């Protein structure tokens, strides 16, 4: 079985200077969670989704969300066929292993919730019939925070369905130079060979689930959760689902690091991505980094 | 950062969960159990019923009590309380109503606020238990109850935790409060007299003595082993046979009953006559008995302030003894006061009914001798010679009881002997009277107090002799010397002697001594710690002139010192303290002086990496330490071995933390 780090190594050749983001994205996928990427256009959100699907050997579909997109455009529709005299279901783009939902906040809440239901249930109910989605099934959604006109930002309850929210950020000057002088990314993508497949991914996931979590670590996770609920800094504390997601992501991250047990560092590494989008603060912090630092530095490690 | 502001979570209106409701029921149970011994039976039944109902509601999901039911219970119980006690105010009805309200409050637990009410009511109920009993056992029981209630308070306000953890937390908090309690107890300026008055119905103690005596009408003397008083002698205690603790003097006789006479009515602030001789000093701690009688050895030589004396030498307090009281007396043993007695008192001491007991009168004539002293000796000889039996179960005597006792039954206890002897002496023309009180006492080897019990109650005679004064004559000693030498324990088998007076169970006796010494220490140093005791203790501690200002300064500084010590202790010692945690803390402490301490939120590997960047010379050791800790705390490595290696790393780091000179 190949090492999950090979995926990150391979992806870094294409997406330059974003190793930590790639690691988080892979962590999220190993932990079986959906990923929300939030950043301004042109920072490589789509490329990241593409690269991940490719390297993991998964089917990839992309849907550009617009305000006139209907649920049926994603889920599929039954069409009457004259030859057979019966309705036949035409599966929508959701029937894939990796679905890139580009600019998910442009669609109406109705369409958004159709997608989110599929994310949660791993199945689609169309016209009274329930159809399972392929295994594995990941949604990588992107969101543009800059232009809010004519958008429907995901409410907190929907944000909770995404295991992680990450931002891309601009590349540093050295990476940017490489990007500007190097080959076209799209052609590179075409050359990219998969390093894993669905079975490997599922094996990694099983492996991550078996990673040891000590009482001391559970104490720490509970202390973090308790702080978000009673610390007085947040309008809403972390949900039990968020706690589970935090632990699953920390396990995947320990696997990525080649360790057999979870360390507080693993939790701290995934907290910004896993927790912050579920934690509306009473006073808006200047930046996401500040918010992460506030949460992590407020909770001491149990000795 | 401005947005870092913290706001207190709003808990008062939060609904109560099942675990907290269980805690509150435990509070009610703990607060009510100490009251079980004195509440009326029907109220206990109602409280138990309401409590069980609430328990069933909690455990089995029964429906709760409706507002109408609660209203009816309140009205009915208020009526019941007012019928039982005749009023709605005072100690008894007050505690009864509080009990009722506490149990009813369990039926309206809606929010945390209600929980706080139950907890505060529980604390108050504990306090009221002290209005009934102040024994060390009660104090210990209330300490346990208080721990449970405090645990409930923690459960109410804190995050959910296991009951054991909460109880441990509460016990720990109580232990931390202990030094403050002691300092406040010892140093807080004492107000003379009780701080607040207890209601009048709080005392119902009675003495083993009474102000009259009718030996013929008692067929079975029941003796109680309860303690009457304790005495501590300055120097060695005299032998038990010399300890005659004087109580009421009975000089009026109507043929059947002995009563206090005119000499008992004349009460002065000074001694009737001076008592010369070498005085013996001692302190008597008297248990409450509701009469104003005080007990001191015959014959008291100096009178403490606040103590008065009757013309027949009975000591009296101003009011009934309702709390334990302590007096210091000085007595001259074997003194014979009253050489120059007022003739009125002597006449009263010769008084006899006009007729009755003819045989005894006749016998008295035969006792008449040349000198009064010989008459007394002849009387004593009579008791010694004839076959008199000392028993606690004498036959009843009818008319002419003295005759019947002297000639027919010849069975009786001290009252019979004292009464008959005084009758004979009076009939022989000598002034004589019956003195009641206590005789003897048992020395407790543990604390050197002499313990006098109700079963040591005694009656003896006093005869006035020309040129000598009042001479004590104890006819019981003539019949059964061991009664005086060794107490009741030597009575023939079959006599109803209180269990505690039997001496043959050696280990039991020493156990009893230990227990009573503990009780006495509690009484002496806790319950009767008053202004005088405080002064005494403080001067022994070196505060010669303790006034309230000095005491307040001491109080404040000692409390501050304790608070400081506790804070430092809490800061030094982290909450968890197993070996691995201690070793990990040791690593941190080794590097903290060099400014390389671990941040509270920093994980072990991050810490190693950060310090490794700052101080590459420390990196290998610290990396090893952090890996050891991480593997043992978060991985599956055995913690004990890791703790040992980690300690070695901590020592190495302490040596290395000073950077090498270049």
Write structural notes for this entry.
The complex is a heterodimer of chains A (303) and B (662). Chain A is an alpha/beta fold. Chain A has 13 helices and 9 strands. In chain A, the strands form 3 sheets. Chain A has a 5-stranded parallel beta sheet with strand order 2-5-8-1-9. Chain A has a two-stranded antiparallel ribbon with strand order 3-4. A two-stranded antiparallel sheet of chain A has the order 6-7. In chain A, a hairpin with a 4-residue loop joins strand 3 and strand 4. In chain A, helix 2 crosses helix 11 and helix 11 crosses helix 12. Chain A starts with a helix and ends in a 5-residue tail after the last helix. The mean pLDDT of chain A is 87. Chain B has a 6-stranded antiparallel beta sheet, with no helix packed on it. Chain B is α+β, with helices and mostly antiparallel strands. Helix content of chain B is 48%, strand content 12%. The N terminus of chain B is likely disordered. The two termini of chain B are 41 Å apart. The longest helix of chain B has 25 residues. At the A-B interface, helix 10, helix 12 and helix 13 of A face helix 19, helix 20 and helix 21 of B.
From the structure above, extract its key features:
heterodimer, A: 303 residues, alpha/beta, Rossmann fold, Helicase, Ruva Protein, domain 3, 2 domains, five-stranded parallel sheet, two-stranded antiparallel sheet, 9 strands, 46% helix, B: 662 residues, alpha+beta, 4 domains, six-stranded antiparallel sheet, five-stranded antiparallel sheet, 22 helices, 20 strands, 48% helix, disordered N terminus
Question: Please, how many domains of chain B?
Answer: 4
* CATH C-level name of the largest domain in chain A: Alpha Beta
Q: How many beta-strand runs of chain B? A: 20
Strand content of chain B: 5-15%
Main sheet record of chain B: 6 strands, antiparallel
Question: Helical region count of chain B?
Answer: 22
* Mean of all residue-level pLDDT scores of chain B: 82
The largest inter-chain interface, given as chain pair and residues per side, is: A-B, 31 and 30 residues
